[in-house]
Design a protein that fits this description.
By secondary structure, this protein is of the alpha/beta class. It has 2 domains: 54 residues, DNA polymerase, domain 1 (Orthogonal Bundle); 278 residues, Aldolase class I (TIM Barrel), CATH 3.20.20. Helices cover 33% and strands 21% of the residues. The chain has a 10-stranded mixed β-sheet with strand order 3-4-5-6-9-10-11-12-13-14, sandwiched between helices. A two-stranded parallel ribbon has the order 1-2. It has a two-stranded antiparallel ribbon with strand order 7-8. Helix 6 runs parallel beside helix 8 and helix 9 crosses helix 10. Bound molecules: iron/sulfur cluster (SF4). The site of iron/sulfur cluster (SF4) has 12 residues, from loops.
Length: 338
């Protein structure tokens, strides 16, 4: 079989020629898969059966689908080796944002996250990351306008595959999204952030900060044991200077943990060190985890304190909370069901 999504256009062209097919078939295959979003080779009408019979686009089966009242659709895709990942489509006005996973499971172990519970299972390939885009397009017809790498996994810990997927997403000849509409979210790996700054891709960088000081951050993010916030912000500054893109600091507000006035002041101090926006996200409670969501008043007060100190704050609301939309929850609930 010729698998399509795990190949760059040059690799696909090579594979087409190696099979003795005319070179122009490469563009036809790319057109069907990426531009028209056709995943079933039988539907590629201008290709002979000799070719369609050899093509494989999707490798995963749809193991579960959850539709939320707010329009959010979450899919659980299971690959042939039984590893499963989630991807989500979030409609907001005329935006359709795809939230993609880069690893099955996650090795970062953030204490409040369902995806980290079972540890890292394995990295996804670039093709498996792109497959999520196609599966979402099949499930919800329409154009995907934005992509966020905020599903399971740490994108910069699976650097090559994530970047290969990003290149396909922003390639005008393939998915053709603007780099600015792609957000890579990371717990903060300074060397990888610096490498990303040199890629020549004007993507948005989001750093999961979640705490205003190293001591508190290390209790929430064990992976931060050997990294300081100062090192992460220095790398983020380099990214800003290289790409001229404001960085986003993500801060999940956990009631009684990181939501004090002192924490807000500390966060405002950090935000003042670089050109950034702060995304404040009220925690989406996960079954069997001790962390609690802030009250709407608590969330508002924290945001206001940041605003009063000159920080550009956006309060993000959990979407699809009624369909296990918090990271890893659909996978968890399927694994638990009899
Ligand atoms: S929050 Fe992100 S980085 Fe942390 S464990 Fe969950 S998936 Fe991994």
């Amino acid at each position: 079989m010729l698998t399509v999504l795990d190949k760059t256009p040059a690799q696909l062209a090579e594979a087409v020629v190696a099979r003795g097919w005319p070179p122009y078939r490469t563009d036809q295959i790319i057109d069907w898969v990426y531009r028209k979003g056709v995943a079933d080779p039988a539907g590629m009408r201008n290709l002979p059966r000799e070719i369609t019979g050899e093509l494989q686009v999707l490798t995963a089966r749809l193991a579960a689908r959850a539709d939320s009242a707010d329009g959010t659709v979450k899919l659980l895709l299971e690959f042939p080796d039984a590893q499963a990942v989630e991807c989500v489509l979030i409609p907001t006005g005329d935006r359709h944002t795809a939230c993609l996973s880069t690893q099955a499971g996650c090795g970062m172990g953030c204490r409040f996250c369902a995806s980290g519970l079972g540890g890292l299972q394995r990295n996804l390939t670039a093709g498996e990351i792109l497959e999520q885009m196609l599966a979402l397009r099949q499930a919800v017809p329409g154009r995907i306008s934005n992509v966020v790498f905020m599903g399971s996994g740490e994108p910069l810990a699976n650097y090559e595959a994530t970047l290969e997927a990003v290149r396909a997403i922003v390639d005008p000849g393939r998915l053709g999204l603007s780099a600015r509409s792609v957000t890579i979210s990371t717990v903060g790996i300074p060397a990888a952030i610096r490498r990303l700054a040199r890629e020549g891709l004007a993507v948005t960088l989001a750093i999961s900060l979640h705490a205003p000081n190293d001591a508190l951050r290390r209790t929430l993010l064990p992976s931060a044991a050997n990294t300081t916030i100062a090192e992460i912000l220095a790398a983020a500054k380099e990214f800003f200077h290289a790409r001229k893109r404001e960085v986003t600091l993500e801060y999940v507000l956990l009631a009684g943990v990181n939501d004090s006035a002192l924490c807000a002041d500390g966060l405002a101090g950090l935000a003042g060190r670089l050109r950034c926006n702060v995304n404040l996200i009220g925690y989406n409670e996960v079954e069997d985890m001790a962390y609690r969501a802030p009250t709407p008043t608590g969330l508002k007060a924290f945001a206001q304190r940041l605003t009063d100190r000159g920080v550009n704050v956006h309060v993000r609301h959990s979407r699809g909370a009624d369909t296990h939309a918090a990271c890893g929850q659909l996978r968890g609930s399927v694994a638990r069901s009899p």
